[in-house]
Write a structure and sequence with these properties.
It contains 10 helices and 10 strands. It has 250 residues and is α/β, with parallel strands linked by helices. It has one domain: Rossmann fold, CATH 3.40.50.300. Helix 3 packs across helix 4 and helix 4 packs across helix 5.
Length: 250
């Protein structure tokens, strides 16, 4: 579980995050949603300690990342998996080498153990025939699955995904959403996803926080979202005609 308590962050006098408090549950897909410029990316960067908040606390199973020194923070980061927007695979490395990379950086296990872990992760995301291929030789969906394999290579307790469906077609996006949800439940991970993809919100939105102008304006799940009377949330979610029809049918 990750708990955010009374978080504030400013840049050059601009109050970006305003007293945000929320909880991200273990074993669930936790989504941060909001318009561009709402503060959701800054919130994510504070949670993973890329930004230091002005005040407030961020508790990883009762461990406050804000109070951690560099050695403690380094150990915590070894418990994190990261799925970046655009996959961020190394072009000069094969799929297998990309998945092996975090293990070479942070694991002291013998090569045979690390190799077996890579094989397991690639099997889990159904990429067993892509070991020797380079990112340029596989599709966008396969690249994303390879990035997921890399993100779970260290068996993380916490998984962070930044716009995981960016650049993917709707059908492939659903496959990636379901894979992230399955892995989250299977390994009991605390997964936090930063997204503006409403299809993802409806498919895997088990715990959602809506950020508006730096404030946590609404919290709930995909079911309660459809019946919410929060005007700010409705203006954001049901901007398209398709989602207006979904709202009208509930």
């Amino acid at each position: 579980m990750i708990e955010v308590k009374n978080l504030n962050k400013s840049f050059d006098g601009n109050h970006v995050l305003k007293d945000i408090s929320t909880t991200f549950n273990t074993g669930q897909t936790n989504l941060i949603i909001g318009q561009s410029g709402s503060g959701k990316t800054v919130l994510m960067k504070c949670i993973i300690a890329l930004f230091r908040p002005d005040s407030g606390s961020i508790l990883y199973d009762r461990r406050d990342v804000v109070k951690m020194k560099s050695a403690e923070l380094k150990r915590l980061r070894q418990e994190m998996g990261m799925l970046f927007q655009g996959s961020a695979l190394f072009d000069s490395m094969t799929v297998e080498e990309n998945v092996m990379f975090p293990l070479e950086m942070f694991s002291d296990e013998p090569y045979e153990v690390r190799k077996a872990r890579v094989e397991f992760c690639l099997q889990r995301v159904e990429l067993t025939r892509a070991h020797d291929l380079y990112p340029s030789e596989i599709s966008g969906g396969m690249q994303k699955r390879a990035a997921i394999a890399r993100a779970i290579a260290l068996n993380p307790r916490y998984l962070f995904c930044d716009e995981p469906n960016s650049g993917l077609d709707p059908r492939t996006s659903i496959v990636i959403d379901k894979l992230i949800q399955e892995i989250t439940r299977e390994y009991n991970i605390t997964t936090v996803i930063n997204t503006h993809d409403m299809n993802s919100v409806m498919e895997i939105g088990e715990n959602i926080v809506f950020i508006n102008k730096g404030e946590a304006a609404w919290k709930g799940n995909s079911e309660s979202l459809l019946t919410s009377d929060n005007e700010l949330l409705n203006d954001f979610v049901f901007a398209s005609d398709l989602f207006k029809k979904i709202k009208g049918s509930t």
